[in-house]
Amino acid sequence: MAKIPHEIVIPSELRPADGRFGCGPSRVRKSAVDALASVATTWLGTSHRQAPVKKVVGSVRAGLSELFGLPDGWEIVLGNGGSTVFWDIATFGLIDERSAHFVFGEFSSKFAEASAAAPHLGAPLVVESPTGSHPDITATAGYDTYALTHNETSTGVAMQLRRPAGADAGSIVLVDATSAAGGLAWSPSEADVYYFAPQKCFASDGGLWIAACSPAAVERIEGVHASKRWIPASMSLKIALDNSRLDQTYNTPALATLFLLDQQIQWMNAQGGLAWCASRCAASASVLYGWAEARDWATPFVSDPAKRSDVVGTIDLVSAEDGGVSANDVSAALRANGIVDTDSYRKLGRNQLRVGMFPAVPPSDVEALTACIDFVVNQLRN
Predict the structure, then answer these.
(1) What angle, rounded to 10 degrees, do the helices at 255-271 and 51-68 form?
(2) Is 275 helix (H, G, I), strand (E, B) or coil?
(3) Quick one: 185 and 312 in the same domain?
(4) In this predicted model, what pLDDT tens digit does every residue of 50-98 receive, in sequence order?
(5) The pTM is what?
């Protein structure tokens, strides 16, 4: 008789120390939550324009500059709304006339759609590739903004960042780094705006966008503002920039999110900075992909190892019809045992598991996860 997934009991000795493997919201370290609890009566419910909160915002900005090794003149700008809102913000305050987008999944396509819908912009160039890969980065005359994605959260594809050779003078490069920032290495010389949200590598909650901006990006922000283009105040990068320089946001932020973000940045820098974080994520990825390649019923979705993400791992399973198992059944069994959020991205429609391997997740927990999957698959097949 076939096993019922939620009735499968995984031996406790196989289970990871922490069962959270989501790709956003992601695992939040217990020590960070404990630190937040310790300031519950002095931090939560206080003014975001007073010294205690402004000090933490300043710490976030300084900590990110250190983590990314930003050169002089770069600025950390932040505001409310997350990366989805930032795409709309960029159509108002960063794209001058026309943008070129390199699309290889659900999230990279959304910015292209926002640009195409903006009535004040020219039609964007959209360069696409099949899911599981990414397009080559090339320059095209007549485009002032290039939109790249460092890591496609939906597919588990990572891109090596580089400026398009031969791009028009004065063009800038925007990088969606939502699931990459803090887990994948990058060079500020290859980008002008590196933007992200804190609910993935930075082990916090959503609701903020953060952008590391080069001097060229700051110049673009100020130039667009001076052009008198109509921009809603809540989406004005110039207003966000001016407020960030005062260590605050234009409107009220979630204080718990800010605090947890700062805790994670401090922890990352104390461990060894971005190099340490990237190495830790790479070790987890090596465990996951190596395990999948050693199974006859599993394989990494991204066929080219050079394009496989070290922070979001996608693993295809052989279907039950072909002698394998349902990935939904595997995820259901894992969840019943406290191992959560291994489901594939909903719109891909594949028999697939997706695993968040952000810095807060130790490689040992990824290894334990693979042992648990082995156990569940064996139970489902026998």
Answers:
(1) 40
(2) helix
(3) no
(4) 999 999 999 999 999 999 999 999 999 999 999 999 999 999 999 999 9
(5) 0.97
